[in-house]
Design goal:
With about 300 residues, this protein is of the alpha/beta class. The chain contains eleven helices and 14 strands. It is elongated, with a radius of gyration of 23 Å.
Length: about 300
């Protein structure tokens, strides 16, 4: 069972957090909500998990209406909020037992579902949750969200503040969970994680910019993209900003990602221009756009 969102709007005073949001998540799909902090991701998650009421619109989760059947939704979903919210004074084992008891089950009954995750923290089962590392806290929170065998799993920025190795392990765990017929909605500000989802929705300022598979979204990038580097990054950005044919420039690691107003560019002419601005060691090469490039283009 999946998720259906239709014309959801939510405001806080003068600030519109969500503006007429609509999308569907298919049963068994790993769907990503991709956007920066303040885009509206957490507000949407709280609405779908029945912790917040929308000003307008409708939504169903696992076949249940978020307003009329909120109790059924709470028994059918697992929710891992962005902020670690387990009981820090309880041990790992006590937290897991507590959440299992709330849902009328036991660790033993659904152990197969959390086994791959729990075995990594089981050696620390007598340690208080507040004393765990970030990666271990993340695994404990996911175990607690899964212990009642939910139909739908909500993960709100689960890898924020976690080291790269733990991030990689976490996404590998999500792929394994997906094979157990759990629908997963995950939000993240990390554009590289978007490529790991079946489909993604790019969200900015409470509005959906585009929904599609990661490859399809990247394929819609409208212009040839170039990596440009030089001896002075600040001078390079300033020179390209003032260039008459510049369409867009964004810093991207050691390069500037550049698009031109023209369909074709003469790299030598562009290099001559940059050298006339006092730059040296200039390299210009065509590159493939990323989801981040597409997001920046759509958000302009």
């Amino acid at each position: 069972m999946g998720i259906s969102v239709f014309n959801i709007t939510k405001s806080y005073g003068e600030v519109t957090a969500l503006s007429d949001i609509s999308f569907d998540v298919k049963p068994g799909e790993l769907f990503g909500l991709i956007g920066p902090d303040g885009a509206g991701k957490t507000s949407l998650f709280r609405i779908l998990t029945t912790l917040l009421i929308a000003d307008k619109g409708q939504a169903t989760v696992a076949g249940y209406d978020v307003l009329k059947e909120y109790k059924s939704i709470r028994n059918s979903v697992g929710y891992m909020p962005g902020r670690f919210s387990l009981y820090q004074d309880l041990t790992v084992e006590e937290n897991l037992n507590f959440f299992a008891t709330i849902f009328g089950t036991t660790i033993e009954e659904n152990y197969d579902l959390v086994k791959d995750i729990y075995v990594q923290i089981e050696p620390f089962k007598t340690r208080r949750a507040g004393k765990l590392s970030g990666g271990m806290k993340q695994k404990l929170a996911l175990s607690c969200a899964l212990i009642h065998k939910p139909k739908v799993l909500f993960l709100d920025e689960p890898t924020t503040g976690v080291d790269p190795v733990s991030r990689k392990e976490f996404w590998e765990m999500l792929k394994r969970l997906q094979k157990k017929d759990i629908t997963i909605l995950v939000s993240t500000p990390y554009m590289d994680e978007a490529a790991l989802c079946d489909r993604i929705a790019l969200i900015q300022d409470g509005e959906i910019l585009q929904i599609d598979t990661p490859n399809a979204i990247v394929s819609h990038f409208p212009k040839p993209l170039y990596n440009i580097s030089a001896n002075d990054m600040h001078g390079l950005i300033e020179s390209l900003t003032n260039h008459e044919h510049t369409y867009s420039i964004f810093p991207f690691g050691e390069f500037v990602h550049y698009t031109d107003k023209r369909d074709l560019i003469d790299r030598e002419d562009l290099k001559d221009y940059l050298e006339s601005q006092g730059l040296s060691d200039i390299h210009i090469e065509k590159t493939q756009p990323t989801i981040e490039d597409t997001f920046m283009e759509l958000a302009k």
